[in-house]
Amino acid sequence: MIRNVYSTELFTILLVACLVIIALAKLKSPKRFEDFLYVLGNSKYLKIYSREQKFFDTFDALLFGNLMLCLGVFSYVLYQNSYDIKSIDINILFKLTTGISVFILIKVLIERLVGSIFEIDKLIDEYLFQKISYKNYLGLLLLPINAILLFRFQGALNLAYVFIGLLLIVNLIGLITSFKTHQSLIKNNLFYFILYLCALEIAPYIILYKVFIS
Fold this sequence. Notes:
By secondary structure, the protein is an all-alpha fold.
């Protein structure tokens, strides 16, 4: 059972901040935001907006900011209850959020570097756009999930495991969609694909898991 946090004021502020960020994204691009809500079951968003993507996109940046805050809160809630911590440690919350953000940004930059080295920038850009879109969608799902975990205390730990499974499924759907889009290219370069999968999709998360549990 997830233990009642003595004060949820900080978490409430962060959740409100996430709502404000999402609202700003919707105000900036109402039509795009509407299409984005259906990205999980409809490839329309990916097909339309992948052609319009820029190196820095304000819409994606806002949703990415929401994702980082939500992941930070989610990770801290799990950490707090795993070690039966009775108070909110702002430093640890900050380190978790910053660490996750830096990890994802470095991973994206490395993938862009790989694309540049092998002169497949366009392919990598499309692939990264798909992955980032699905990750940002996870950010939307995490907002209500965090609210439930923070303010529903009875049996919330079991819900946390269910939510982790749900998030993994959504992320897996995103990866499968990306792979299906480029399946002909993957078949022709199966060895390099397996190498990429192990080096940039599996190994980094294993390392992150090791760091988290240590």
